[in-house]
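Inputs:
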Amino acid sequence: MGNKASHKYEAVIGLEVHARLSTKSKLFSSDANAYGAAPNENVSVITLAHPGTLPKTNKKAIEYAVMMGIACNCTINRKNYFARKHYFYPDLPKGFQTSQHTVPICGNGFVTIKTAAGKRNIQLHHIHLEEDAGKSIHDIDENYSYIDYNRAGTPLIEIVTEPCMHSAEEAGLFVTELRKLVRWINVCDGNMEEGSLRCDANISIRLKGETKLGTKVEVKNLNSIRNVRKAIEFEIERMIDLLEKEEKIFQQTRSFDATNDTTFAIREKEEANDYRYFPEPDLPPLNLSDDYLINIKNNLPALPQQLYKKYQLEFDLTEYDAAQLTSEKEIADYFEKVIQYTKNYKAIANWINGPVKQLMNDEQFSLEYIPADKLAAIAEIVEKGEVSFSNASSKLLPAVIADINESVYDIVQRLHLTQTKNTDELKEWVTVVLNKMPDKVLEYKKGKKGLMGLFVGEVKKLSKGKADPKIVTSLFEQELN
Ligand code: ADP
Ligand code: MG
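Outputs:
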């Protein structure tokens, strides 16, 4: 933070995150819920709110909202209902949005994030279901605005946190974690650029030690994690500057300008809006049975937090390894597959978090190119000392990917990758190295034992990675001690 006075203050942040559910149809009609269709293609009389039409609740959307609630440790409100939220918007043809208010589908809950300072649970206030509005387009024609109703009526969940975050870092990590979760359980594609996940950030400032909340501003529609962070950073500084100048902070709705990372006011909001919520009379209230909830819970994949714990407690992996393996579902699934073939968890974690991840940075690469049983075989060959790790990762792995029909053992033979355990041959290399570096040998004998790494490394080079380092080390020890 640039402001000198910033240490006196504490920022308070609450987020409202909208996630578009990846159901086939809209929340209350059979119109397609698809991004990128030609304008007004997915629009029926229900989407257009013609008089006399009746909405019907999409079962899948309810199921997805419950799944997300379970994944976020929420209480599921078995009895919940939709409500009308009245406001006029040209792209909201009914004149109200069907949302949830008094009783949302999920209450409370938390999402765990890991900051530089350690782990924190970010408390949720609730998760509710609502329909999205259409889209007004103002830049096609000088005199007219265009409206595309494709998005109108598509299903959203809104995840609302308590005002419990205190930095742009925390907010960014929270959205990152949410995006991971929706993708993990496959209820939303998490694509922020296409607006499948968007975030409103509420920010206020107070003196440290103060318990009352300050006046908040709300920055709307942040469509990347970077923008979430930048908007919050900018607002914190702007508001601290105002306080330092003893100017009043107005409750405002603001927008983010990504071209210069600033925000600007779009409306003042002195009093709470009166949306005149009332229960939606055209839709029956939801009454979710215990069986229904249990069934959804049982069908949920293992969640990242569960696997993160399991990998440390049951497989004895480090926190780092566990975090890496659970960073994406694709990776966790792959790890689970590979360990069907070997119980050498640590070796597999090293392989996935090392050479395999490096390959994954290459856009052409897909995990399918390394069948799980083959990676297990490669790891075992290395563990047995038959091929060195460096040859296995630089030569064997690429060869396996190049031809998945050839057996791993055949490739080892064809490429002559077997480590040399032949002591006579190894002794020759050891002698060459000792003769090459008399100075280092002297230093070693005087006590600089760390030089062993250098000696063994030289033999590795001479042997093109084929010398078994364990045997080489003991040969050096015999010669030097
Ligand atoms: P509104 O009615 O304006 O939408 P809510 O009370 O429903 O406000 O809260 C919306 C979001 O704003 C929540 O995420 C909440 O945590 C956050 N929030 C509310 N008050 C503050 C505040 N003073 N500072 C920061 N965040 C706040
Ligand atoms: Mg709000």
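Remarks. The pocket of magnesium ion (ligand 2) is lined by residues 16, 200, 218 (CB under 6 Å). Residues 6-291 form one domain.
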